[in-house]
Amino acid sequence: MDVVKATPGDLAAVLTWLEREYAEDGEGFWCNRGIIERALELGDLWVIRRDDDAVAVQVGDYAPDIVSVRKDCRRQGLGDALFAASLQRAMDDNVNVLSIECSPRSSWTFWQRHGFGRFGDVSEWGKITARRILPRSFDLPAGMPTADVVIGFYPEAATYGCDPIPPIAAHRVRGSRINDGTVMLERRIIGLCDDEPEGKDLAVKIEVDGEVRCFCKAKYEEAEEAGITRDWKGGAFYIDAVEPAET
Predict the structure, then answer these.
(1) Residue 120 — φ and ψ, nearest 5°?
(2) CA torsion angle for 102, 107, 109, 110 (degrees, to 10)?
(3) What is the mean pLDDT of the chain?
(4) DSSP per-residue string spanning 125-154
(5) Mean local confidence (pLDDT), 203-230
(6) pLDDT at 116
(7) Residue range 206-223: average pLDDT?
(8) How far is Cα 72 from Cα 52, in angstroms, rounded to an integer?
(9) What pLDDT is stored for residue 211 in this prediction?
(10) Could you say which DSSP state residue 167 is in?
(11) Residue burial 35-59, b: 16+ Cβ < 10 Å; e: rest
């Protein structure tokens, strides 16, 4: 099943069956047609065609805002194909986190099957928000000295110098020291921006063999110089290698 960028003709076909299904069942994404139309203008509307007709649609290059399959084509793997294509685009474009809101709520089982876990409000009657983290692993160069690296992500308040605050998440990872002093990590470490409990800036602490390389807001230049990169598309920070401190 080829997933392709939509054309104006695809949009017209999608809106036709969305309107028809809404008239028949009172359900579907016809009420979101404005979002779908704008997605064509923005270039992030994707479809699957059969006999030159668009029968499945997705809004969003990575984590979808809307996914719908024409009623007579459901349970044939088209939704799986749309997700597989968006997952590949995310991996190719170095996106680290896919975040969604499940609407209708009945779609949760589909996303759960594709590796998403709930976060945020997980009460029975709250909206279902879910995400999937996209890990990367790396082959370390052989014969290099090893390093023990601990990377913690903290609330912003942890940088204020008051009482110690535990990390939101802490990762211990093996690294290899290469000749210029850089420590390459065996896997990517990812910090999620929306895990900051008060909605402030996420902080990061990097330790190499017990020595603190940096402890500051992850968006600061000091963190970038230590190896932290911001993933604007996925709403995260990540690090593949700890850069040596300037001497």
Answers:
(1) 75, -135
(2) -100
(3) 95
(4) TS-EEEEEE---B-PPPTTPPEEEEEEEEE
(5) 97
(6) 96
(7) 97
(8) 16
(9) 96
(10) -
(11) ebeebbeeebbbbbbeeebbbbbbb
